[in-house]
């Protein structure tokens, strides 16, 4: 799906949200985004807001991140200890995308989408952002 959530992770999130696992449809964009945002928020909380560490966990799993953190002396050097190229590239790609959105939408506080505990508000903010991006891309065509 859109947020690329592993089946086991989506089942865990479903339980955390007290939703019915039988009716969970990860191919539904709204459900997929809601679960993805929930999971990203969990990771950001777990790793004390460190975006690079949370992205690494989202891409490569918390077990790999635990190993990389154990071999990290200075947290600023964390990505140097990531030994999976796909994950290094993922972190870089997401950060570049975030930087591009900051340039395009300097009035929008991208980071604020992940602050607070209201996942529904976050999901609605992301949906509004995606709609705005679609409109602006359409204007460029």
How is the secondary structure organized here?
Blueprint: H1 7-16, H2 29-46, H3 51-60, H4 62-70, H5 78-81, H6 85-104, H7 119-140
- Global outline: globular
Helix residue percentage: 55-70%
The number of distinct helices, counting runs of at least 4 residues, comes to 7
* Beta fraction: under 5%
Order of helices and strands: HHHHHHH
Largest sheet: none
Measured distance between first and last alpha carbons? 27 Å
Tell me the total number of β-strands: 0
Task: Give a concise summary.
With 141 residues, the protein is an all-alpha fold.
What can you see in these coordinates?
With 141 residues, this protein is mainly alpha-helical. It has 7 helices and no strands. The chain has helices spanning 7-16, 29-46, 51-60, 62-70, 78-81, 85-104, 119-140. Helix 2 crosses helix 7 (119-140). The protein starts with 6 loop residues before the first helix and ends with a helix. The mean pLDDT is 83.
Key descriptive features of the protein:
141 residues, mainly alpha
């Amino acid at each position: 799906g859109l947020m690329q959530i592993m089946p086991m992770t989506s089942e865990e999130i479903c339980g955390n949200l007290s939703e019915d696992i039988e009716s969970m449809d990860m191919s539904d964009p709204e459900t997929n985004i809601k679960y993805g945002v929930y999971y990203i928020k969990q990771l950001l909380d777990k790793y004390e807001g460190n975006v690079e560490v949370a992205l690494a966990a989202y891409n490569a799993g918390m077990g790999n991140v635990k190993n990389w953190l154990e071999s990290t002396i200075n947290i600023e050097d964390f990505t140097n200890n990531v030994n999976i190229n796909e994950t290094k590239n993922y972190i870089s790609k997401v950060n570049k995308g975030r930087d591009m959105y900051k340039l395009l939408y300097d009035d929008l506080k991208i980071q604020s989408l992940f602050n607070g505990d209201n996942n529904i508000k976050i999901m609605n903010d992301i949906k509004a952002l995606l709609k705005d991006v679609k409109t602006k891309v359409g204007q460029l065509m």
